[in-house]
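To whoever is covering the structure queue this week,

Two jobs came back overnight. Logging them here so there's a record in the thread.

Job A:
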Amino acid sequence: MAHTPIFWVLAAAVLAPLLGELPLGFKLPVVVLEVLLGIALGPQALDLVSFTGFLPIMFSIGMATTLFMAGMELDFGAIKGLPLALGAGGWGLSVLLAMAAVGLLHVLPHVDAPLMVAIALCTTGLGMLVPIFRDSGQLGTEFGRFMLAAGAMGEVGPIVAMSLLLSQHYSTWQEAGYLVVFLGITALAVLVGIRARPPRLLAMLGRHMHTSTQMPVRFSLLLLTALLLLANRFGFESIFGAFAAGLLLGQVTRGPEGKPLREKLETICFAWFYPFFFVGTGIKFDVATLFRDATTMLLVPAFALLFLVVRGAPTLLYRGRIPPGHMWPFALSSAVPSLSIMVVIVEIGTRAGTLNPDVAAALIGAALLCVLVYPTLAGLLLAGTSGSAPSSSSSTPTTGHTT
């Protein structure tokens, strides 16, 4: 069974939630367990599967679906107003802190921290946090709405900044123009999808919802592919198109009538595509590079701390608006970086020769460390303050996630 990536990825996808049920006194998020199992299965440990052939293709699709599902979960009706304003203000503060941190790192010997490192430090892994908060019962609470808005800015802001600043196709002003056009097309599609709903078309889609054709699901996947290609043709990273597709479908399918389609898309993404990204991240990661020299070894904890400072410090803006016992869980959750954006930044930087290999390896290593540690700590702290949790959720929060 060696070197059969589909089998081992799906085996890890099944084993991860089973390990999450072990009575350890705390719960590791299943996506974290998937990354760890990927490292164990990869060339760095058991060498049962390598990142070649079919796996890189599925990894790219899985990366896109994490952004797709993050876009679907965004309900602007729930986060508009104060949550969105605080999220935008917090992300702006994060940008200033990240620029200061990169300026300090840039002057250190053997450390070249370009602008893309600042973008990386400003990310929040909304695609990872959404399933964790969904399963913990926190997503619909006031705390969850603030977290969702902050996470949305930590996902959208870096994607837009990356598209404008890191593109090698056009100048920054040209990219800004194309960005406006792309957002206009997406907004128009959202308006058409919400307002123009011909009864005959809706009836036809309803008839095919539970047949072998699965027309609404096929149409949704076609839309995802179309926006991926459109974003790519405009010179943006394809994950921008994936997020836009999820945002579009999320707004159009909002409400009880869209629930069956959303559930089907969640099943496909969580059960099939997500494991290829998270397990693939572990398989792809070269652990040995972290111990290649002292600089890289020191940069890993330094970047992990910077993620917490850059994205956690804006939590002070929420003082008095969320319970005091939720401040640290909020900061730790905000500091969970986006692995998908991190992978894209590292690949762009290394391909263009603008990112030092040591810095690239340390960024990925620190991101994995944050993904392993911060959600777990946040879950433990939330569990300890369950008595003061917002009243819209009565269940004791955990950090488990069923893939």
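Job B:
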Amino acid sequence: MNKVHFKNLGKLDYKECWDLQEEVFKGIVDQKIFNRNFPDQTVKTENHLFFVEHPHVFTLGKSGDEAHLLLNQEALIANGATYHKINRGGDITYHGPGQLVAYPIFDLDHFFTDIHKYLRYLEEAIILTIADYGIEGGRIDGLTGVWIESENEEKARKIAALGVKCSRWVTMHGLALNVNSDLDFFNMIVPCGIDDKAVTSIEKEVGEKVDYQEVQDKMLVNLQNVFDFDLA
């Protein structure tokens, strides 16, 4: 069974966390290149998983439209938020207090080399996690993430977003589940470039704040079960 090094980073600035991801990601990619060039000296690559809670931040993926950020620099400062153009796929999203962000930095050669399957597995872990709170999550064809009332075009609302980068079958970035998030911040963007769907959270769906640590614990177990790994 695969082993994954897990670390809960607590509350951490987005750029600092992104730099950490890049460092770990590069180390795995470099090791894979070394293994390919020197097969007689092969060292098995590691897998890592970070949980983190960011201060208010908006991030724009490589394929995103900067017009989907509805704030200027002054308004960003006034709302205590930062903004970063980053190297994942997808459009714009928000991270902030009360949101669980998970960054798997996996060598998919240890699991399966199928990025679409990888995204569906991330979604499945989210669906299992919110099910423990009586929330039925689903998918919408052509859209990543997890949705509530996904089959109802008018009522469908997003509870979790995905955005990943993959190179040489090594992943980074990941998922963001709205637990007790301030949903007003999603009104400051066109979330994921989708302007006709609402955003929700576990708190909003159940009508009260939930135990954030409990959600983290459930998510970790569900990721382990879905991807079939043990903690190193």
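Note for Job B: The chain has one domain: 2-226.

Please reply-all if you pick these up so we don't duplicate work.
Q.
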